[in-house]
Amino acid sequence: MLLGTLPDSVRVLEDFDGWVEFHFDEVISEGAQPNFGFGNGELEKLILLSPAPDSVVPRVQWRRDRILVRPRDGWLANTTYRIELAPGIRDIREPSNASVLASVVTFATGGPVPTRYIVGRAVDWTGPRPAPLALIEALLLPDSLPYRTLADSSGRFAFGPLPQGEFLVRVVLDQNRNRRLESSESWDTVRLIAGRDLVGEIWAFPRDSAPPRIQSAERVDSFTIGLVLTKTLDPGFSLPADSIRVLGLPDSGSIGPIGALPKPAHDSLYRGRGGITPVRPAADTAAAARGDSTPPAPRPTRALAGGAAVSGGQQPDTLEQKRPPLTNRLNVRTTGIIQLGTSYLIEVRGLRSIGKGRSEVVRIRLDTPKPPPVDTTKARADSLA
Questions:
Q1: For residue 26, which phi and psi values (nearest 5 degrees)?
Q2: Coarse DSSP helix, strand, coil percentages of the chain, rounded to the nearest 5 percent
Q3: For the chain, which terminus, N or C, has the lower number of CB atoms within 10 Å?
Q4: Cα–Cα distance between 148 and 136 in angstroms, integer?
Q5: pTM of the model
Q6: pLDDT in tens, the chain (385 residues)
Q7: How far apart are CA 13 and CA 203, in angstroms?
Q8: Residues 31, 5 contacting (CB under 8 angstroms)
Q9: Of 86, 145, 90, nearest in space to 114 by CA
Q10: What stretches of 115-243 adopt beta strand conformation (E)?
């Protein structure tokens, strides 16, 4: 149990030059990894000191029933500091008995007392689903002083107290839990003006700018070829017919590609009549009955965080209703039938990932499965009967 902290939180301490201390009611464990300033110590991993560059590890000391923290280069004047101790402090006698609550100490070395809180939610767009324990960074502009915290198990965060001003709030899906943004990790940012606290939902997505390649191909139905790519597609991406070639082998005759769409968009467009023709909007039968050709009035909409709009003034219960899902599957439509037991060469130009990576020309060979053998032993129907 945490008994208290030194100094007290939410204060202005102009001449403070000591250590921030977390006091516990019994001796705590130092952990299997010692704290040598490299960031891999067990206690160092539980400390989030802000503002500080992510490459600088604070000084952390273990003193039996206390944890001592201070910046490696000392406290700066006229700066608001936030020291967060994450859950995970363990009992020295029972290592499995760990703390489940976080503790925060906030104080300023000059200026007004910090009182601002930033409230929002981190979302993994590739799900889409909430992002538990996502790294939240709030960069105070224009100096880009970084403040950090972690989202809870539902992706939500109430971050503060923080100084007043304009912030650039960034969500990072910290997969390796090193409290740093790696090139392979998903992230996104939202600018928050001064005087506003609600940042809304921040939808993190991969930013890898490497060009996408075709990983595999398959025959989906008689007029659709499914391509699995190495990168996530931009949800608004589509390819015209002149960017695709589907050639039957060995004569290289084209079967007339008419375009390509990400799988969710393709399935939404071709979900009717066996997937052969696009789905047209249903007619307003009520208007036809009353002889009214005027289209019905649109339902009222209400803007949500992130620019999404919700009809009827009701907020959706699920995240999927706010943004189109991300996918790495691209469906190619053709006018000619994709025959079983035939080989095809698929050539695609201008693939674009959501991370803005673009490929010139990529090719793949598709060998469709052979048709099932016909059972000639079955008795024919009695046509006379």
A1: -155, 175
A2: 5, 40, 55
A3: C
A4: 6
A5: 0.75
A6: 899 999 998 999 998 999 999 999 999 988 877 777 777 788 888 999 999 887 788 999 999 999 999 999 899 999 999 999 988 898 888 877 888 888 999 999 998 888 899 999 999 998 889 999 999 999 999 988 899 999 998 899 998 899 999 999 999 999 888 888 888 899 999 999 998 999 999 999 998 888 999 999 999 999 999 999 999 998 888 999 999 999 999 988 999 899 999 999 998 888 754 555 555 544 443 333 334 433 333 333 333 333 333 334 445 435 544 788 899 999 999 999 999 999 999 999 999 999 888 888 999 999 999 888 877 666 666 777 6
A7: 37
A8: no
A9: 145
A10: 116-124, 129-130, 135-140, 145-150, 156-162, 167-172, 187-192, 198-204, 214-221, 224-229
Nearest CA-CA partner of 356 in 212, 220, 186, 243? 212
Give the whole-angstrom CA distance, residue 27 versus residue 62: 10
The token pair that represents 352 in the structure block: 């674009």
Q: How many CB atoms lie within 10 A of CB 136?
A: 24
